[in-house]
Design a protein that fits this description.
527 residues; alpha/beta; five-stranded parallel sheet; 21 helices; 21% strand; globular
Length: 527
């Protein structure tokens, strides 16, 4: 039986298997290999009980965004196809969690502006640098380092808007998304439209956005057929289960009643029900090679050899290096750091104990001296339906990121009690919460988020050349290290790779596709 092997059983691997299952006939097999004993990767929901109350805690991602982007739509369509509609719970656009997001600055929670009304009511101290930054960009002559193909987010924002905009605002946002420092993150990779506007414009970044819009429209034209078909399919889909789609339209974010792991669990259960799909968990791949018949072979820890016509590798970069040994060397593999984050879940035995309502707050670089935390999510306020009416408040404190080793030592050896004490101290100092919680639980997610550092796009091109040279052209890559680390980015990357880039009608020949070309093209600088 012709076979496609997927390495990695996180959300990318599971999604890849799902999309293959939609397209492949039963006569083509799919093998999904996961080295650990559980599937879902960093999507992990634990059940806990304390103070006579049972509740859930999220150890990784916790919410999904709505909206009209391809990424958001792909996840919603997956939820629909998996018949998880009745499990979905949402945060309405009018909710406090949708409207209120805070930055901890100068010892206070500063609510971020949500519209022009903020100009009337007054900007909080953390944001007062922004109007000055806009004026600076509009009045400062072009100072783009045209000889460079990239620069850090910190350098880019400081150059156009002033260092305080990065120290107060951008650094906090990147702490929340990437758990990394803007002084090392790539402006080209993570702020591409704005970075490109600065290069294309003659009178400041903001004025250059018009030129970027034209470039974007020209690029989107090549995907016009795909976009038209996707919109038609979505329109047809929305005629069914209209109540679900109307609720989504009125919401800013969502998850599931029993936690975000519901999505990965349903994927795994559905895939296991397919006769042509085999999921192998608890057996890591230890070697990859070309067999005598020209097919790709994956060797597992128990000695089993899986031969396949193509391998889709969703492993993190350090695992790719381990799998391929000394031959695995290119700048992306060698130079991509991963951030480690400690997640400390704290539960209090009564409702509404935070001084403000909202999604939570982030800590910028400007407040680093006053906080060891990256930020805190107000879980019960964001999705109160997950509490099931219980008299409880759930919070999640994030620690570590770019300062993990500096503050706590190695992620492998840091005492759990230390992290829990630091989290409680942060809640006391930043929220004034002095009552004793009913439950505290710390988890270290070591090397969980790839950092897209300066020069990332050039390194991605090197990775593409390396991938195409492996396993006789029978391997491609998908995952958080390439198209973006968020759940929706991983899912859309998997879908596009299966539906648009692989020739599933001719598996006997090497595919000779990397999985990276469309991503790389999206960051090209127009000539």
């Amino acid at each position: 039986m012709p076979t496609i092997t997927i390495l990695g059983g996180g959300i990318t691997g599971l999604s890849t298997a799902w999309y293959l299952a939609q397209r492949l006939p039963p006569t083509v097999g799919v093998k999904l290999i996961e080295g650990s004993s559980r599937l879902g990767g960093w999507m992990r929901t634990d059940k806990r009980r304390a103070g006579g109350v049972e509740f859930i805690v999220e150890k990784g991602p916790r919410t999904l965004r709505t909206g009209s982007s391809r990424e958001a739509t792909a996840v919603l369509e997956l939820v629909d196809d998996l018949e998880l509609r009745s499990e979905v719970i949402t945060a309405p656009r009018t909710s406090a969690a949708a409207r209120n997001r805070y930055i901890y600055y100068n010892g206070e929670l500063n609510c971020m502006p949500t519209g022009l009304s903020s100009l009337i009511t007054g900007l909080p101290p953390a944001v007062k640098c922004l109007p000055r930054g806009v004026w600076r960009d509009l009045t400062t002559a072009k100072n783009t380092p045209m000889e460079s193909s990239d620069e850090s987010i910190h350098d880019f924002i400081s150059r156009r808007f002033g260092e305080q905009v990065d120290d107060n605002l951008a650094s906090a946002v990147m702490h929340g998304i990437y758990a990394s420092d803007t002084r090392s993150l790539s402006a080209r990779a993570l702020l591409f439209p704005f970075w490109l506007a600065d290069r294309l414009g003659n009178k400041g970044m903001l004025r250059g956005l018009n030129r970027v819009a034209k470039v974007s429209r020209a690029r989107q034209a090549q995907f016009a057929k795909r976009e038209k078909l996707e919109k038609l399919a979505l329109s047809n889909r929305r005629t069914q289960n209209t109540g679900f789609w109307e609720t989504i339209d009125d919401s800013s974010m969502y998850s599931f009643r029993h936690g975000i792991q519901t999505l990965s669990d349903r994927l795994a259960r559905t895939l296991r029900s397919r006769e042509n799909i085999e999921i192998v968990a608890g057996q890591p791949a230890t070697a990859a090679r070309v067999g005598s018949d020209g097919c790709a072979e994956i060797v597992l820890a128990n000695g089993r050899v899986i031969s396949s016509q193509h391998v889709i590798n969703t492993l993190p970069l350090h695992r790719v290096q381990e799998l391929f040994g000394s031959s695995a060397s290119n700048t992306l593999l060698d130079e991509t750091p991963y951030a480690s984050v400690a997640v400390v879940n704290v539960a209090f035995g009564r409702k509404n104990i935070t001084p403000v309502d909202g999604f939570g707050y982030l800590v910028p670089r400007a407040s680093a001296a006053d906080s060891k935390a990256l930020g805190t999510v107000f879980d019960s306020c964001a999705l109160p339906d997950q509490d099931g009416g219980a008299d409880i408040t759930r919070l999640t404190v994030m620690l570590g990121g770019p300062r993990f080793n500096e503050l706590f030592g190695s992620p492998a050896t840091v005492p759990k009690a230390m992290l829990e004490n630091v989290a409680l101290e942060a809640l006391r100092n930043q929220l004034g919460l002095r009552s004793s919680p009913i439950d505290v639980d710390a988890t270290v997610n070591a090397s969980c988020i790839p950092s897209y550092t300066v020069g990332y796009i050039d390194r991605l091109k090197a990775m593409q050349s390396w991938v195409l040279a492996q396993l006789g052209g029978r391997m491609s890559v998908v995952g958080a290290a390439y198209g973006g680390p968020a759940v929706p980015q991983c899912i859309i990357h998997a879908r596009d790779h299966v539906n648009c880039h692989l020739n599933l009608n001719d598996l006997d020949r090497p595919q000779n596709v990397s999985g990276l070309q469309e991503i790389i093209d999206g960051f090209e600088i127009p000539r």
